Amino acid sequence: MHLNNLSTEELKKRRLYSNLALFLVAFLWGTTFAVSKYAFAYFTPVYMIAFRFTIGVLAMCIFFWKKISKITLKDLKGGIIVGIIFFIAFVTQLIALQYTEAGKQAFLAATYVVMAPFLYWIIYHKKPDFRTLAGAFICFLGIGLLTLNASLSISFGDGLTLFSSLFYALHIMFNGYFVEKQDPVILSTVQFAVVAIISWIFAFFFEPFPTAIGFEGIASVLYLGIFCTGLAYFLQTAAQRYTLATHAAIILSLESVFGILLAVVMLGEIFTLRMLMGCIAIFGAILITELRPSSD
């Protein structure tokens, strides 16, 4: 159903459900930090992406086969474009991690939240309103308080991470563009398949195949594939039909908040005052962006 055919009340309701779905997505992505620590003991990075997205594709096909069987060339075009962008974002971030500190990369990678409104402006020629820009800026500061490392120098790894962030922002933009015209289930499945295929090719040539995969490795990669890939990215794609891409970027940035909180609970890491201030800033950014007068 096209958005123009929805009543104001129905559109508001769907936007609320979409935003709640994006909160769940951010939580699932936040869990990947702890889960990936187990998976990396058994898988090299790109092979883990290959397994993760292959499982994601299989999960989508099992649950939505009737809908996926009706795929068209138009669906393939959109999914391939979004999938290639998604793969570039994933792989460049992994390569960059070899040349920079993980804490600094977490901050730099999250700059897609700030990039998104400006990309939205460039691509769709719609200038972001003051609330969106202010929310993105405050969110940027909050993520900095959560993860910024003492060193601020820009190395090769830092520059490559910013390049990766640009593609994460582009992924949100193009996801929002194509999902308005295509079925979210099919769009999600095609882009998962594209990432999986390219990852298998990339990993075959550049990484050793994992041979000793224990129970924890299988369980962790199944969780990453089914919940953090299949379910999470499907919800992201479906939710973006009813919410602005710039708002989606702000909500999805909660991934860093959930990641920090889960690290404290599950891994016993220390939660500092600066981290608390970062969480408050990010929640404040979401409130500024999402809580609007009823006339908006």
UniProtKB/TrEMBL annotation:
Keywords: Cell membrane, Membrane, Transmembrane, Transmembrane helix. Residues 19-147, 156-289 form the EamA domain. GO terms for cellular component: plasma membrane. Its main location: membrane. It is a multi-pass membrane protein. It is found in: Cell membrane. The chain crosses the membrane at residues 20-40, 46-66, 78-99, 105-123, 135-154, 160-178, 185-206, 212-235, 242-265, 271-291. Belongs to the EamA transporter family. This is Transporter. It comes from Acetoanaerobium sticklandii (strain ATCC 12662 / DSM 519 / JCM 1433 / CCUG 9281 / NCIMB 10654 / HF) (Clostridium sticklandii).
